[in-house]
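Extended Data, panel c. Modelled sequence:
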Amino acid sequence: MSVESKKPREACCSKLKLFLASLAFVYFSKAFGGAYMKSSITQIERRFDIPSSLIGVIDGSFEMGNLLVIAFVSYFGAKLHRPRLIGIGCLIMAAGSFLIALPHFFQGPYKYETSVSHTKDVNSTESILPCLSNHSMTDAEETPDLEAITACEKATGSSMWIYVFLGNMLRGIGETPIMPLGVSYLDDFSREENTPFYLACIHTVGILGPMFGFMLGSFLAKIYVDIGSVDLDSITINHKDSRWVGAWWLGFIATGTVILLSSIPFWFLPKSLPKQGQEQSQSKSTELATVAEQENFLPEENQDHEEKEGPVTFKQLAKDFIPSLRRLFKNSIFSLMILTYLVAVNGFIGMITFKPKFLEQIYGQSASKTLLSQCNMGCSCSMKHWDPVCAYNGMTYASPCLAGCQTSTGTGKETVFHNCTCIGDMMTPGMNMSAVLGQCPRKSDCERIFKIYMALSVVGSFISACGGTPGYIVLLRSIQQDLKSLALGMQTLIVRTLGGIPPPIYFGALIDRTCLKWGTKQCGGRGACRLYDADAFRMTFMGLITGLYFLSNMLWGGLYLKIVKRQKKLALRNQAKENELEDNGAVNGHANISIAKNKEDVDRESTI
């Protein structure tokens, strides 16, 4: 008999652990895909020749997709089959990842701007004599008519970035049910004391996702975008050049496949489970234990609301939606946590979106010179061309012509330019006046500073992550049982609407203001930025992040003081109740009447 009684418990535990492992893998998969998307921002910007502000809109499309369905998924999804909804979300995320990679197969080979490889006549002397006093750039500088521009844009597929926008939006829609439905399902059927440990396990596995995502992004960024379809020996740039585009599309196929695999276990999980470690007869005591713990956070008027049992219709659910929202936002702890998360996520999203660009521009570029001077006045150089060359004095010039180079030897990546007059102006007479293709590398001290920066970033990330699980527990315990999924969904909705969509846009717009040299599209017009003012970029980027994180820390401090104050009030109230019972010898019924009479004299919200 005792053996049979243990079987349901073992089955329950095994299914709960299966759900835990599946949810952890989904967290890894979505973080893997999200981190790869962030690491590919620069590659996508260059491939479609678009500014950082538009890249911010594309990046924000993930939050836009989430915004479309989060409220309905969180509220109505809690009443439906939560594991299967998570599985459906994974399928949508995978489809979005594949859609992002689709433009690569529709576009032609990537053509980067260069004055060397764009010569149509093999006998032309333009690439051999970069600076020639009697040649003119007027033909190249002429602005084509509107019909020519339209035909060119149609041929080059300049609007293909819309596929990336829509694919990223699909990723946002598919990611919607994972957090609110997954965490609420886990919390509903696990012991209260086990929930923090389970959440820690999920986030620990999930945090590996960004690590692998950025590693994959770094690896594919060094592989040319058209690998397998072009002769790599004909490419005159390398992965350190600001015109280089890596094989960004391969990563989305890989991440989409991983997300697709993560959906499989959820199709075999039940709609509900018995409470972990509890027999059916003990379910009432478990519910009471949960309510007792939630009294530390819940307003008193909300403690009387209990989840109604029995089947409900869709009309009844819809009718109760607005009252449920009112109950939810009357909880001041929940509202203050939403505001705190909102500010912190603004800083985090802005940082994670443009951090790869920040590292590249601050720690990967050398001092440059995009200027006309006396040494190249007779060369009739185009200011639109971006074909950087590195001089032996460590200075990068925007093109061989602007460096005043007179002759060249070699072909492709091995091209060397000689007798560069502008280089001679900055060097001792008799020294090497040659330049090679590509931008100059940073000095050695930059690598040392970069390592310090990364070490500080790791320490900061560790300190920030320490508050993740406690924050989740406070959020879960501050709301009623029947509002749990709705609360998590509303948190995601608000934080991602105001904390996920705007930051990439206003960060990108402000970063564009620090651009020194804009690229030129094939069809004319301004393309992606090739070179930034490193000091202005640093001040803009770090200033925004520092300000937002400082404000969020102030709000966390206010939340902590509010919770401590509630704890003291609750302790005094409980002591008063005990003293009243001892003095009057009252029974439970009398105690309830006494509390009801004095309810208006105490704070409306319960305390910890």
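The chain has a mean pLDDT of 76. This feature is highlighted in the accompanying rendering.
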